[in-house]
Write a structure and sequence with these properties.
By secondary structure, the protein is an alpha/beta fold. The protein has three helices and eight strands. It is globular and about 40 Å long. The structure holds cobalt (II) ion. Cobalt (II) ion binds next to loops.
Length: 151
């Protein structure tokens, strides 16, 4: 195969795989100085082997004042994970080390910053009750939403 033709084949292959992917395997999640996410629900398809949440802090306040992260656990574990995270402190990013209830978590960011967290969907149950939330002290009461798992 000559070079231009090979390049063309690769390009069309890439285009095809882009189209054949039915599920959206990443989502942008905004957050702000008013202690809010811009979504109350995130839907995740198990067709995605891995799912990525891109967290953006559109505010101006620093991470030690208005820090935001995104942590995922079963909804039943939300309060305990958030409380243990608060106890773990700022240096730990307000997430308890090796917390097995934590399915995934991002780092803590401040205004103008972005971060991403990716996780495998294999262990998540369809119709399971999962939540995403911020573990900065006092934030989870407002900064939380449902993570809905579909096929
Ligand atoms: Co927060």
């Amino acid at each position: 195969m000559n070079k231009p033709l090979m390049t063309l084949s690769i390009l069309s292959l890439l285009a095809f795989s882009g189209h054949s992917q039915a599920a959206e395997c990443s989502i942008d999640l905004g957050s702000n100085d008013a202690m809010q996410y811009d979504k109350k629900e995130i839907t995740l398809s198990k067709q995605c082997a891995e799912f990525t949440i891109n967290l953006k802090h559109t505010g101006k306040m620093a991470a030690n004042v208005m820090g935001h992260n995104v942590v995922i656990s079963k909804t039943a574990d939300l309060n305990a994970v958030a409380n243990d995270g608060m106890a773990a402190g700022e240096a730990a990013g307000y997430v308890k080390a090796k917390d097995e209830r934590v399915i995934a978590h991002s780092k803590m960011i401040g205004g103008g910053e972005s971060t991403s967290v990716s996780f495998k969907t294999e262990g998540l149950a369809k119709d399971g009750d999962y939540s995403f939330f911020c573990t900065f002290p006092g934030h989870f009461a407002i900064m939380q939403g449902k993570l809905v798992i579909t096929d």
